[in-house]
# Entry
Amino acid sequence: MSDLATDIDSAVRTVLEEHGRLAVDVASLDPEADLYAAGLTSHASVNVMLALEDAFDVEFPERMLKKATFGSIASIASAIAEIQDES
Amino acid sequence: MTTPTLPAQRPSSASVRVGVDLVRVSEVADAVASFGSRYLDRIYTPAEQAYAEAEPRVRAERLAARFAAKEAVVKVLRPAEQRPEWTSIEIVRDGAGACDVHLTGLAEELAREAGITGLAVSLTHDGENAAATVVAVCGDAPGADQLRDAARLANHDALPASDTKGTS
# Structure
């Protein structure tokens, strides 16, 4: 994992820790683990999205508003990287 | 004993979809405290915000019930990929206390593609929880009008406008 990817992964975990209300330890969560299975609710995913926008100074476009985007740490990190690449 | 004869039902390919969602009121209150207008404007229409803010004591409850209703609508729309913006699903309330759903944008498009001809919503909240149930009628279902009326009546009966706890 590159330094940038590691930074994103770490920041995503911090946001999930603060806003995800997950029933598991975020730090030890596999990047591909299903966050909904880990307890992420639809409303908590909104909080996570808004916190990620604050943390990365980005805005999730409408096309990324799908369940899969917030389905795992890896998918969130991928979405962040994609938004950053576009801006 | 004679068995009552039921009126003949005409054949139909119509169907009904049901969506339900439950939201913790404290999560909504926390979101408002943390993100303020960014959260409110992303999720709720100006009319929904105004209705919630009209009664500060139950603002979070009203917002939570509306969020639950929007999610319940998404469940009946069943988007394969992109989901509609939350503000494209608006919960409107008439003077008598009954709630209805108004769709725009992608939400309206998904409903049309699914052949949804009617939506009925019922909201409730009590203490820490807020919930909503949505019934979607797809196609020209026999009894669709009665179903919509029944849901509307159930909503109205369950949430008397004079009852603060249930005024969703």
In short: Chain B touches chain A at residues 21, 23-24, 27-28, 30-31, 34-35, 38-39, 42-43, 67, 71, 79, 81-86, 106 (CB under 8 Å). Residues 157-165 of chain B have pLDDT under 50 and may be disordered. The longest strand of chain B covers residues 116-126. Strands of chain B lie at 15-24, 89-93, 99-103, 116-126, 129-138.
